[in-house]
């Protein structure tokens, strides 16, 4: 089969790799029908995630069909159409028992495309299949469903839930890429008074409006002042960092009100300054997090009911063989207008993906 292989910073290729096989009785083998590229994958290619060894197949999000299972797998069987979660869960360690699957100490956590071969391939081995794949309703299209492998649970859990968004809040989201847009969509579930999106790209500011932002601000045009003007000088109740660079994190800490929350989602490859000389007396809560995906079943039910504008997130589709082109389009989103790229067998750009 073929997969997208990381060969070191700046080096990758769509090439022949060994077929995956069941190694543990809890494994499943999934034939990939739809897969996407994540901003974290771009961080890996830049060398920001040194744990990823050269020779690793990248990718941690997929929709596909179960083709083989180990002897201990009980909840899925060959022929089932499933979502492959970005997080694997052993289900037994103390963290998994607290639904903190991202911190699994039993061999799970974020391992696909990180510590073991991932989903950007024709087939993928999924460890701990009973807890790491989710059966999909037939009504949910693959190109929509794959968004719930990572970006929607990440935005919801690490951004909205960690930020304690409540009815009547002012929520500022810094970064209107896929994660930021999903944070806007899921924050709306809690009826905030207003959501403000901060982003440099005009096309993404327009997308933020479509996803439910009540106000938008170019990051270069005094977004802090806009937030202050809309909140009588207090600042936002919740600020969600969805970029992963020092400047965006520091902007978030300047826009939050006393007693407010800064929820960091972004993957940071460089140190960010924490200005405790300004923050120590303001009762600000700052949270970080790796998604646990405990919310995935509920989000999938809402997606099947049409509660999220998922179709607007997928701007480009490709067949799997054009993986390198898809990466290039996604990496140059400022010029291509890409939000999410989705790849699937036998498809062509801008053509809807096949569902099982």
Give your account of this protein's structure.
The protein has 356 residues and is an alpha/beta fold. It has two domains: 2-150 and 293-343, Medium-chain alcohol dehydrogenases, catalytic domain (Quinone Oxidoreductase, Chain A, domain 1, Alpha-Beta Complex), CATH 3.90.180; 155-287, NAD(P)-binding Rossmann-like Domain (Rossmann fold). The protein has 13 helices and 16 strands. The protein has helices at residues 39-46, 94-97, 129-132, 142-145, 151-161, 178-187, 202-211, 223-230, 246-255, 276-279, 296-304, 323-331, 333-336; strands spanning 2-8, 11-16, 28-36, 56-57, 62-69, 81-84, 123-126, 133-135, 170-174, 194-198, 215-217, 236-241, 256-264, 285-287, 314-318, 340-343. The strands form three sheets. Strands 3, 5, 6, 7, 8, 15 and 16 form a seven-stranded mixed beta sheet that branches. Helix 9 links the parallel strand 12 (236-241) and strand 13 (256-264). Helix 5 (151-161) packs across helix 6. It is globular and about 60 Å long. The chain starts with a strand and ends in a 13-residue tail after the last strand.
Give a summary of the structure in a few sentences.
Belongs to the zinc-containing alcohol dehydrogenase family. This protein has 356 residues and is α/β, with parallel strands linked by helices. The protein is built from 13 helices and 16 strands.
Counted up, domains total: 2
Q: Provide the structure class.
A: alpha/beta
Q: What is the CATH domain class of the largest domain?
A: Alpha Beta
How many helices does DSSP assign?
13
* Strand fraction: 15-25%
Could you list the spans in which at least 5 consecutive residues all have pLDDT below 50? 346-356
